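User: Can you model how adenosine-5'-diphosphate sits in this protein?
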Amino acid sequence: MTGAATEARSLFARLTGGSPDGVWSAPGRANLIGEHTDYNDGFVLPFAIDRRTYAAAGIRADARIRVASTFDDAVVEVGLDELDALFPDERGAVPEWARYPLGVAWALRGAASRACPGFTLNEALQGDESGHGTDKPGQGWMTTGVDLAIASDVPVGAGLSSSAAIEGAVASALDELWDLGLDRVALAQAGRRAENEAVGTPTGIMDQLAAMLGRADAAVFLDCRSLDAEPVDLGFAGARLALLVIDTRVAHAHSTGGYRDRRDACERGARLLGVPALRDVSVADLPRAAELMDDVTFRRVRHVVTENQRVLDTVAALHREGPRAIGGLMLASHASMRDDFEISVPELDTAVEASVAAGALGARMTGGGFGGAAIALVDHDEVEKVTDAVTAAFAAARFVAPHCFVVTPSEGARREA
Ligand code: ADP
Ligand code: MG
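Assistant: Here's the modeled complex, given as structure tokens:
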């Protein structure tokens, strides 16, 4: 077991004096391409990374849930029947980090209460409550008390989705301890519900699906409308390529205005074009779009429409030519986010420019923007050269030194022990 898995186990021992019933983990993710397309019903191409969050979990004799994490000193404990009173409206009563694990428990319990014969838990998680089930939690499904001890080696707030990692680890643990038998997409939906309603962050479902569905040396091609997911071989290992993450250490914050504002612009653009979502607009429709809306809204729309096309082009290029063919698409994606969507920051632009100047095949910011990380596709034996060049460029610009590390496309959520 890795360091963080051992830490989760020892935290569990300190918390309870015993050993857990199991340890579950889920990875962070990097998005190869397809940014701000998820909530527009579009396409994304993330992959799970070899940095994971571990949840050591055990059943309790009572009906309480207790969570601890190496992320924070506080231990939070509530009765299972109190979760419905906390979320979504009274979430301020628990520390923010604890809303992720407790929110997942709340989402899964809510689904368990709505499920009944003929209306499965998987369906209940889709949010269809049309007259099914009862409002009494736990009917038919036992949701017993649990202790959860969490540790992670996913950097927090770096755009690598430590939030989906904690949600995925906890959802996998509870699915098994509560014997829910949910499929991976449903567990991703529980994580998204926790993040949207229990934490209050208006994110799409890409991160959770990547954390649940990742595979070694593959990306997950997701259709965010149908939730169809298809693994796409990346072939980095065979092509001797590495994916370098450049964490700018500029903290991003989803809840601040920029993210909300971009979502509003996309909704406005779709409304003006008379379509349910920007997914339904193609590159050929852009001249018409330009006539229908103001310049800023148009540029937001153009980013999403061209980015959707770039995801499709990347998947096609990977199939046909392999990973060395995608560098140009990554660079075009970054330019579109910098110029049209306006979510880059100088540190991210510097990371992209310096890495390409030092020999990277392609690079782009990844994640929601306004900080966080960039990724660069680099020849194995040039990782050090590119890292040094980026570090030097940051120093010259008087930016805080970046954290650079290689990530490997890896397996999604799993039971560790
Ligand atoms: P990102 O997902 O890009 O890392 P977010 O702001 O979406 O950034 O999520 C980070 C938040 O998730 C943290 O501030 C914390 O509240 C919660 N979180 C992530 N990992 C852990 C962990 N191991 N233990 C407790 N909380 C965590
Ligand atoms: Mg997140």
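A couple of observations from the model: Confidence is low (pLDDT under 50) at residues 128-139. The longest strand covers residues 46-59.
User: Helpful, thanks.
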